[in-house]
Write a structure and sequence with these properties.
The complex is a heterodimer. Chain A has 16 helices and 15 strands. Chain A is an alpha/beta fold. Chain A has two domains: about 200 residues, Glycogen Phosphorylase B (Rossmann fold, 3-Layer(aba) Sandwich), CATH 3.40.50.2000; about 180 residues, Glycogen Phosphorylase B (Rossmann fold), CATH 3.40.50.2000. In chain A, helix 7 crosses helix 13 and helix 11 packs across helix 14. Chain A starts with a strand and ends in a 5-residue tail after the last helix. By secondary structure, chain B is mainly alpha-helical. Chain B has one domain. Classes of the chains: A alpha/beta, B mainly alpha. Chains A and B meet through strand 8, helix 15 and helix 16 of A and helix 1 and helix 4 of B.
């Protein structure tokens, strides 16, 4: 199939949606599909060759974090051109209600459209304000996908109707093969605790982990806290007490290989996210590597861990609970390893080979419905409606 | 005086043009939504046929006892012989088929070690999942058309004509234990 994928967020910066789009594109290309991705990008940023730039991205505060978006007449023109040249069998729009490229694509689209909703934190007032503008174009979407139950709830509440839940995915084997060594491996007395993510975003929950660190360091004075991800190190250190700061190492932005190695070496991976998370992809990555895992009990994490069967959970936002659970896990590593072995099997449920097949199902069914709708004879207008008929254009 | 009349006339013409455009646009939007619903229903039907065929294959696979095989084959035949007409009757028959399949599969212990068992089971699971997917997409389209048809302008100007209001469907899954 010829598939056009629209990603509203710039590939310049890391983010769940961007990674999902990149992996999806690579999965589809490996199966022999013809893929073009349109996304904002600065001219000098190297992007994969299947990515078409829709122009420069502008940083905008949106939905609780800074998103880099594109809009404006130039982007709209580029979008129409891309759609025309692409002649796609299916258009797959990610985050269709972001005030950005996705919306432009929805306006311009004339073919079958599948949309994936990632966000679980849509403001309902924003949606109501946008409703008259966006409502009719949302009707172009033939198949709706939500990446989690929370995202599906958002669709149901703010847009109406339903969506099919198809979770995010991981290339389990590729990730496992990436971990070359065990650079960050700890010992029984000096265990390594790992944190991944943009630590300057409050919802990633680093502060919850930091408040728990003194309690952990009391039992394990030599424990190491390794923080991988973007953020301002000085600010983060300013929020730590002295012992925690001494235990902390900042890696900054890491490559996929480094991330895999960190997860493979860590004695404990902590995911203290406080909310706003669409899906626990980070958890699945840790599970793929067999890392003992401690996560907050927010809904998307609970879904992935099946209520604690594949990893330990602590009460969201509760640093003391985090510390107690962490100490219990570090004290009995064999229990954590046992759980982690089961988690590796569970992670395969989220492998691209399984999840991607369901996305292709959505493409095929949406394209089929679209063709059937186009071929079906329009209903014969009765009475005075015949007058209206004459003037109207056929929009699909 | 005459110029005021002229202006009023012009305003009236403009209002009529805008109103006409809006009516025409809304009528076109509604037609599109009706077409979308019928296209989505067509897909549901196609997927249901595929699922019934997978169940017939399962019945003929020799993996089931004669009574179970007969039960499934006849329930699948009921569905496959139906002509496109009454949607509600169709859904009822499909759900009977799902129930029969679930009941039969609950009795059979499934050999998870690959082999032909896993093959027909995989086909059934895949087709059943596509039925669910198609049904969700169809129901979304129904919600959209229902919402637009509630608009006062549609009702006052009878823009929906005699097109029947589509209803959402509930298709049960085949439970594979």
């Amino acid at each position: 199939m010829r598939i056009g994928i629209v990603c509203p967020y710039s590939f310049d910066v890391p983010g769940g949606v961007q990674w999902h789009v990149r992996d999806l594109a690579e999965f589809l290309i490996a199966l022999g599909h013809d893929i073009s991705v349109i996304a904002p990008a600065d001219d000098d940023t190297p992007v994969p060759d299947y990515v078409v730039s829709s122009g420069r991205a502008v940083p905008v505060r949106y939905n609780g974090s800074v998103a880099r978006l594109t809009f404006g007449p130039r982007s709209a023109a580029l979008m129409s051109k891309w759609l025309q040249h692409g002649n796609f069998d299916i258009i797959h729009i990610h985050e269709p209600i972001a005030p950005s490229l996705a919306l432009l694509a929805l306006w311009a689209a004339t073919g079958p459209v599948v949309a994936t909703f990632h966000t679980a934190t849509l403001k309902s007032r924003a949606m109501q304000a946008a409703r008259p503008l966006v409502g009719p174009s949302l009707e172009k979407i033939g198949g709706r996908i939500a990446v989690s139950e929370d995202a599906r709830d958002t669709v149901r509440r703010h847009i109406g109707g339903d969506a099919v839940v198809i979770p995010n995915a991981v290339f389990v084997d590729r990730l496992r093969s990436m971990a070359g060594g065990r650079r960050w491996a700890g010992t029984a007395t000096a265990p390594t605790i790992a944190f991944l993510g943009r630590y300057d975003e409050p919802r990633k929950g680093l502060s919850v982990l930091l408040s728990a660190m003194p309690e952990i360091l009391q039992r394990y004075p030599q424990a190491n806290l390794v923080i991988a991800g973007l953020g301002d190190e000085d600010t983060a250190r300013g929020a730590m007490d002295e012992t925690t700061s001494r235990a902390a190492t900042f890696l900054g932005r890491v490559s996929d290989a480094d991330k895999a190695e960190l997860l493979a070496s860590a004695d404990l991976y902590v995911a203290p996210h406080t909310g706003g998370e669409s899906f626990g992809i980070v958890l699945v990555e840790a599970m793929s590597m067999g890392t003992p895992l401690l996560a907050s009990d927010i809904t998307p994490f609970d879904d992935v861990l099946a209520g604690g069967r594949f990893g330990t959970m602590f009460s969201n936002g509760d640093s003391h609970d985090l510390a107690v659970k962490a100490l219990a896990m570090l004290g009995r590593p064999h229990v954590g390893r046992h759980l982690a072995e089961r988690a590796i099997v569970r992670a395969r449920d989220f492998d691209w080979s399984v999840v991607g097949r369901r996305i292709i199902d959505a493409y095929e069914l949406t394209a089929q419905s679209f063709d059937a709708a186009t071929l079906a004879p329009p209903p014969e207008p009765e009475g005075w409606r015949r007058v209206l008929r004459s003037g109207r254009g056929v929009a699909r | 005086m005459t110029s005021t009349l002229w202006l009023a006339g012009l305003a009236l013409v403009l209002v009529l043009i805008v109103a006409g455009w809006y009516l025409s646009y809304t009528a076109a939007r509604l037609d599109r939504l009706h077409a979308k619903v019928s296209g989505a229903w067509h897909t549901v039907e196609t997927q249901l046929v595929r699922r019934a065929e997978a169940i017939v294959e399962l019945a003929n696979s020799g993996q089931l006892d004669a009574a179970s095989a007969f039960l499934l084959a006849s329930a699948a035949a009921d569905v496959l012989e139906m002509d496109d007409g009454d949607q509600r009757k169709r859904i009822g028959a499909e759900n009977d088929l799902s129930a029969a399949t679930s009941a039969v599969l609950a009795q059979v212990s499934i050999d998870g070690n690959g082999g032909s068992d896993a093959e027909w089971l995989g086909l059934l699971v895949r087709t059943d999942r596509r039925v669910q997917l198609a049904a969700t997409f169809y129901n979304d389209a129904v919600v959209e058309v229902t919402r637009v048809r509630r608009k006062p302008v549609i009702r006052v100007f009878r823009l929906a004509g005699h097109a029947p209001l589509p209803t959402s469907i509930q298709l049960d899954e085949c439970r594979v234990s």
